[in-house]
Amino acid sequence: MPTYAIGDVQGCFDPLMKLLEKIKYDPSQDHLWFTGDLVNRGPKSLETLRFVKSLNPKPICVLGNHDLGMLAIARGAEPYDPKHHTFSDILEAHDKDELLSWLEQLPLMYYDPKLNYLLVHAGLYPKWDLKLALTLAKEVETVLKTPHKQEFYSHLYGNTPTHWDPSLKGFDRLRFIVNACTRMRFCSPEGELEFHTKESAHKNPPGFSPWFEYPIIQSELPKIKILFGHWAALEGKCTAPNIFALDTGCVWGNALTAFRLEDEHQFKISCP
Ligand SMILES: [Mn+2]
Fold first, then answer.
1. Which of 165, 197, 217, 272 is the most buried (most CB within 10 A)?
2. Ligand 1 center to residue 132 CA distance, Å?
3. How confident is the model at residue 16 (pLDDT cuts 50, 70, 90)?
């Protein structure tokens, strides 16, 4: 049963359909994974979300920063801004409640021990090993299933704390976990995250390197392989072996990528 991991769709429904045609997607044979950021910036967030939710067999999908941002708005914690958001179609949809509830039960990280792949939107924070990362992701996933999620959304935004500390508590702790899993690009050797630079890996701010270049990550490899999205400026190029960058900037007019886990073959279609 081939498994395909698809990069950040961001409401680009038509390219997604073209990509599925290209891989000759067959629901009776194939399983789909998504790196998150299904919605926002692109023109068809509603169609995209409805489609991914309706897939059978059920897809594996992790939450991205844009998905969480939409949830924060939909749950009333943040204002909708038409300059930055393109998902009013979801907020006005008759099936909005089902769509949002489906999104809210998605994990921040998914690890498949049989295929030996970790799926995460931004990456694996260099100060965590796989086991700790999955445990911490679970803390956030648990809150999203409780009435506390409302308060969580209103504390979601912010670039601090900048470093992980196991003694972090409350919303600071949850925000750091969310930022590491869904927004991280550059990290310092001390574990400080930098959220301003969105350019390619070699345009690192002084004192910072791409998260995937750190030795703790390397020591998990080749035990596990990592699939991530979020960083379109990498253009699908990741220098670390066994780590695969799948956001190829479809929404910016570049490409949408599907990665077949079994043989690491990549399929791409160019996006208008
Ligand atoms: Mn993202």
1. 217
2. 22
3. very high
Q: Which two tokens stand for residue 15?
A: 């390219």
Tally of domains in the chain: 1
Q: Sheet containing 117-120: which strands, arranged edge to edge?
A: 109-112, 117-120, 225-228, 243-245
The residues placing their C-beta within 5 Å of ligand 1, an ion, are 37, 64-65, 230
Q: Can you give the residue range of the structural domain that contains 153?
A: 3-270
Q: Which residues touch 200 (CB under 8 Å, ≥6 apart)?
A: 233, 234, 235
CATH of the domain at 253: 3.60.21.10
Ligand 1 centre to CA of 64 (Å) is: 5
124-137 average pLDDT score: 96
The reported pTM is: 0.97
Per-residue pLDDT of 157-201, as tens digits, reads 999 999 999 999 999 999 999 999 999 999 999 999 999 999 999
Which stretch of DSSP H or E encloses residue 46?
helix 45-54
